[in-house]
Amino acid sequence: MYLFYYDESEHSRKINYNTINADNFYDSFATVIVGWNDEYNSEIEKLYESFESKYKDRKDKNGEIKSNRLHNNEFKYGFASVNKHNTRFLNDFLEVFNEKVKIYVSFHSKIEYLVVQLFSQYDNNIFFDADSMKYSITKALVTYRPENVIKAISESPDTFVESLKMFFNERIQKNIQHNIRPLETNAFNEIITVLDSISSEVIISWDYKMTFEGFAKYLNEQGIDNYKIILDNEGNEGQDSRTCTAAKSVGLMNVEEKNSKDVFGLRMADMMVGIITKLMKHLSINLHKDYGETVELRFLDPKWFALSNEQLQLYLKMNKIICENDKAWYKSYIGLYPDDFIVFIALLKFINDEKTKQLMLNNLEILPRCFNDYSCQCISDYFKRLKVKIPIDPIPNTKKDYYYNQSGAKVYFDIKKQPLLNIEKGCNKLYKVLSTGIERNGIPVITVFENENYFCYRLPNELCGWSRYLLSLSILGNNLLPSDVLFSNVDGNYTADIL
Predict the structure, then answer these.
(1) How far apart are CA 235 and CA 274, in angstroms?
(2) Are 406 and 393 a contacting pair, CB within 8 Å?
(3) Cβ atoms 191, 144 nearer than 8 A
(4) CA gyration radius for the chain?
(5) Would you give the DSSP letter of residue 255?
(6) How far apart are CA 26 and CA 11, in angstroms?
(7) CA 106 from chain center: how many Å?
(8) pTM of whole model > 0.85?
(9) What's the CA gap between 453 and 57, in Å, rounded?
(10) Domains of the chain: which residue ranges?
């Protein structure tokens, strides 16, 4: 059995005008889940108890060491501004995260959540990229924080759409007046066109189950079906908290709530999520552009890269834990607007690079611009991936020579073992086709539903063009499957017609 422990940071139970305008408001809602096979529980517990014993003077009145013992302001320049005592403290904490410890992280923009609610009835299609539109609107609201729009969220939801249109029109006029940001102007014009077709009746319901949706995918990818998830107790006794209810609502089993004072794994999760969000928050503060009427790039202060060897080790250890150990597609789960998280990961990888380490020694002043170029490229790469609408389903861990795809059809790793869709010459056959794809060797395959079961078939090479055409439409958001498809064999030539 695997034991997992959950904690969160920057969770705003209500998102309204006062919440967003508060001095300490941060847009990202972050969660961390740490876990391990229970056969390692005693070993990891001893490691963590040794760490806590070493720093027992830092325990609070409940006898716990929590992330709130680290002051936000100390992370003004990332780990570079952390004092020697806390640097040693953090290095010892990160030592507990050996290769036996699994970690899952989730980050979602709170303002994006509002935008997603607004566009809940709009899906991607070949003419309209709803995901890119949601991303652009969220980025604009996070960047400019328009007061009239934010007020409309809680005080008058029926004016939300009109407030958005007014805001985008004002930004367009300012951009034109000062002859700046032409790409932004074009994007805002497209957004207004879409907003004109949206109902003004917007109902915003708050639901934070998305982090558990990602964790369910992580468990499936890892092939873990025997597990227990422990949450920090925050509800009334005998009653599930909203967090616990959210976990159970996505189908997670064996969810319990306990007091972090009694569970060291919860304290580990609390420390890790607290450290990550403090870094991300100050990255956001440092890089946030002061959008006036001129164009000015903002770079990190060079002090971010003026690291002692001990401070450098913090970044290297964090990079190993987050980016290198326990590699999995769903190890991190993000929303449509993950810019802060992308920049955070970019910073870990950038500092881990040998060229960066050399520049720290002899050319510190050039690093902020180098990092800006690298992080902007990372965000650009993400936005390009956002335009690809084919869902990615990682292959679950298995020791067998096959696995089951998302439909439940058996798929062999060796394509030669996959059954061929056999249509005899002069015949045709109708199938309910759920999906199609191209195997890594360029061989087309389909998943079908027949005889109350799911099967994956290898297609004749002649139908490779047909599969590629459907895939190209799916990339643009126009998925023609599932559909009834008539496969025919006319004088040895295979055809496929969607009915």
Answers:
(1) 21
(2) yes
(3) no
(4) 26
(5) E
(6) 9
(7) 6
(8) no
(9) 61
(10) 2-111+206-386, 402-498
What is the separation of C-alpha 39 from the centre of its chain, rounded to a whole number of angstroms? 30
| Long-range contacts of 371-376, Cβ-Cβ distance < 8 Å, separation of 24 or more | 371/299, 371/300, 371/305, 371/346, 371/347, 372/297, 372/299, 372/300, 374/346, 374/350, 375/342, 375/343, 375/346, 375/347, 375/350
The 10 Å Cβ neighbour count of residue 120 is 12
Please say if the pLDDT value at position 477 is more than 90. no
d(C-alpha 140, C-alpha 163), whole Å: 13
Its sign, for the CA torsion 371, 375, 378, 383, is negative
Which of 310, 304, 317, 320 lies closest to 356 in space, CA to CA? Answer: 304
Per-residue tokens: 311 = 């401070």
Helix (H/G/I), strand (E/B), else coil: 247: helix
pLDDT single digits (tens) 167-178: 999 999 988 988
Residues 301 and 298: their CA atoms lie apart, in Å, by 9
pLDDT in tens, 19-77: 666 666 788 889 999 999 999 999 999 999 999 999 999 999 989 999 988 999 999 99
The kind and range of the H/E element at 76 are strand 76-79
